[in-house]
Amino acid sequence: MVRLNLGCGPNVITDWVNVDYAFGAKLAKYKLFKILNKKYHLIGCDWNPDIFIHNLTKKFPWVDNSVDIIYSSHTLEHLSKNEGIFFISECYRVLKGNGVIRIIVPDLLEIINQYREGKIAANDVLEELGVLTIEKNNINIRSLIKIIISTPHKCMYDCDTLLNIMKSSGFKAQEKKAFDSVIKDISKIEIITADFVRLITSI
Q1: DSSP letter string over 130-174?
Q2: CA torsion 38→42→44→48, rounded to 10°?
Q3: Under 8 Å between Cβ of 93 and 60
Q4: 110 — alpha (psi -120 to 50), left (phi > 0) or beta?
Q5: Strand partners, 101
Q6: pLDDT tens digits for 20-74?
Q7: Chain centroid, CA 150 distance in Å
């Protein structure tokens, strides 16, 4: 069975093909960097060197109808609108006819509702949207690396928009709650925190 964890970040799951293109994932291939990072904490997490490196804005390296399950959490919003549409079309291409896809993104409508209810201050909205880069004050080697590897959001979705895009690509998509999936052992790959749940849209 071929199961893809697309945009895995440091969340590497056994028996899945864990795919990412982050700067940290690429650096983790070099033993010297891992040693330096462990000593000086240059980046905030310890990337797994076994991650399969692939730019998800490019054609996927898997053949048509060859993948059983695709899981992607908090990755789509880091792609532009057109890159996101291409990403979903590539998922459809490689997924088997009876395959399953699950995509999780921050819910723009929920963020707006939180703001309108006074739960998010106006000057915190952009931070909630994830479009801010790291401030460049007090520059040092660690902050420079964080600026280089930061990946702000490029596109936001609400449930209806995401469902429509997926249906346009050929999927029979529906909204699902956290951990509600036909994917076996979903709890091993779906890591949810209390703050994370309110921003979640699952397909």
Answers
A1: T-PPPP-SS--HHHHHHHHH-------B-HHHHHHHHHHTT----
A2: -50
A3: yes
A4: alpha
A5: 70
A6: 998 888 888 888 777 776 766 666 667 888 999 999 999 999 999 999 999 999 9
A7: 13
